[in-house]
Q: What sequence folds into this?
């Protein structure tokens, strides 16, 4: 189930967003996170909403996947809404129960802030839904490339990420195997008091740790035998290609930014 | 025979944590295009030998020469380009997130230009019959398939020697057969020298030459036929004799001589059903 959460998020399809360079998608998401703070009234939030829905349309991702991805954070959005609704004490009173008042400004803030949350989550899930984790890793490695001059281990970090991604399913399978083996020996994972169940995790984690270290050692030897000697002088099999669409998409977001600056109150 | 591709001369090795020598005055030669099997039970020093050949460990004494290059700290990367290694655990040598990424890993390490790379990846995968799995992820592959991808990863670098370090020992019989078949094809068609390190005598029976190791020393050397005549001696060394050999030995005890040693089940069957007419 963890596998679904971390890497099973990618939905393969042939869409504009899928074909985009991961670098431009990453830049767009980072820009968007900044740009969203420009919105402060009905018009500006409206523009952002239209932009986000447009992007969701470009992705050709079925809405049920988008909503599915939003579910775990939905309560956070709702919580934010009520927090602002109850705690803001500005503007005219629109609802009065004597001891309990709701102010106009509270309603506004509640809607705007939860909307901001909602849009951010939607845009970032569009990134992970249309880009494979390995593409994201590649994109990050290229984008952070200039940091190499500052002795920042960009290549090592990217390699670590890709190896971690590659081993998640393997370790999941292993966890499953150990759990079954321990269940056969009488360990209970699904019933009994919480304290007992937490204790049962120990005989699961220890073998998992030991085998992971063994794996790491063997992997290091195999990598060395295959000529791995660090990032120096290495070529890249996966090439990224920046197309006109990528430039146009960035220009579109810049245009949205200009609109926001014009219309913000 | 031609000049040897690998020369191992008076090599000794000792692990820091152990008192006795892991390898004691080993001398052997590997010839171009042959399949050499090095057999021996656990602790016989056969895996240590493989690690020495690839420069993962350095000998305490003696010298190793591969294709004219003597193994030393400075030549280690040249030697690793000559020798490809396939290890025991299929999972722990799969570096890439997909089949093609994994095959490309070795090429990337060696700075092969991108335009050559994709061609070489596909070529190597074709040779091991895995070219239809380009974008497959490792956890969707069987052990035998993963080992074939590992072989492709090695092939892509065009080595002159492939070392299989117990590469079939973690596979099911089907995976084992797949890998052995692939190796046989590569040795015959692409004239690749194969050194297989194994304790499975059935795998070793496919080799041109077998070296039996025991307690860090070369115990015996010969063709599979010669080696399997050792019979009881092999069992004493902790090696299990393949079924066809066992069968013919048992038949001989009963007074039925098949005239020759059969190494594979097919040969044995063929030998059995034609034997009656000779008697």
A:
């Amino acid at each position: 189930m963890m596998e679904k959460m971390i890497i099973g998020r990618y939905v393969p399809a042939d869409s504009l967003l899928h074909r985009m360079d991961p670098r431009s998608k990453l830049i767009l998401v980072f820009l968007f996170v900044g740009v969203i703070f420009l919105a402060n009234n009905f018009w500006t939030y409206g523009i952002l909403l239209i932009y986000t829905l447009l992007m969701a349309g470009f992705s050709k991702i079925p809405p049920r996947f988008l909503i599915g991805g939003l579910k775990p954070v939905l309560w956070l959005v709702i919580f934010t809404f009520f927090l602002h609704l109850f705690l803001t004490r500005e503007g005219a009173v629109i609802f009065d129960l004597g001891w309990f008042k709701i102010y106009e400004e509270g309603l506004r803030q509640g809607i705007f802030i939860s909307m901001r949350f909602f849009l951010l989550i939607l845009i970032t899930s569009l990134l992970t839904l249309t880009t494979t984790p390995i593409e994201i890793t590649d994109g990050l490695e290229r984008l952070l490339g200039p940091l190499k001059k500052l002795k920042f281990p960009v290549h090592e970090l990217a390699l670590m990420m890709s190896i971690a991604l590659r081993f998640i399913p393997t370790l999941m399978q292993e966890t499953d195997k150990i759990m079954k083996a321990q269940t056969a020996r009488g360990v209970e994972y699904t019933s009994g008091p919480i304290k007992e169940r937490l204790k049962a995790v120990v005989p699961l984690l220890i073998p998992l740790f030991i085998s992971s270290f063994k794996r790491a050692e063997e992997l290091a030897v195999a990598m060395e035998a295959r000529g791995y000697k660090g990032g120096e002088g290495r070529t890249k099999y996966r090439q990224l290609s920046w197309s006109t669409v990528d430039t146009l998409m960035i220009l579109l977001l810049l245009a949205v930014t200009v609109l926001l600056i014009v219309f913000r109150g | 025979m031609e000049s040897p591709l690998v020369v191992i001369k008076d090599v000794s090795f000792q692990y820091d944590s152990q008192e006795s020598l892991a390898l004691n005055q080993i001398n052997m030669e590997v010839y171009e295009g042959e399949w050499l099997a090095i057999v021996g039970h656990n602790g016989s020093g056969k895996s240590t030998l493989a690690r020495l050949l690839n420069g993962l460990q350095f000998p305490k004494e003696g010298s190793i020469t591969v294709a004219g290059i003597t193994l030393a700290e400075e030549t280690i990367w040249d030697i690793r380009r000559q020798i490809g290694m396939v290890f025991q655990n299929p999972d722990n040598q799969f570096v890439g997130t997909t089949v093609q990424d994994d095959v490309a890993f070795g090429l990337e390490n060696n700075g092969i230009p991108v335009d050559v790379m994709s061609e070489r990846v596909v070529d190597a995968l074709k040779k091991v019959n895995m070219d239809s799995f380009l974008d497959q992820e490792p956890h969707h592959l069987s052990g035998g398939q993963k080992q074939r991808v590992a072989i492709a990863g090695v092939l892509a670098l065009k080595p002159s020697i492939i070392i299989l370090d117990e590469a079939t020992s973690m596979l099911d019989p089907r995976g084992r057969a797949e890998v052995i078949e692939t190796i046989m094809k590569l040795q015959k068609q692409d004239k690749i020298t194969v050194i297989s390190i194994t304790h499975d005598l059935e795998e070793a029976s496919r080799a041109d030459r077998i070296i039996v190791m025991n307690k860090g020393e070369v115990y015996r050397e010969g063709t599979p036929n010669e080696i399997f005549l050792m019979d009881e001696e092999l069992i004493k060394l902790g090696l299990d004799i393949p079924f066809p050999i066992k069968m013919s030995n048992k038949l001989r005890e009963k007074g039925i001589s098949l005239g020759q040693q059969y190494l594979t089940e097919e040969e044995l069957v063929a030998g059995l059903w034609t034997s009656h007419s000779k008697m």
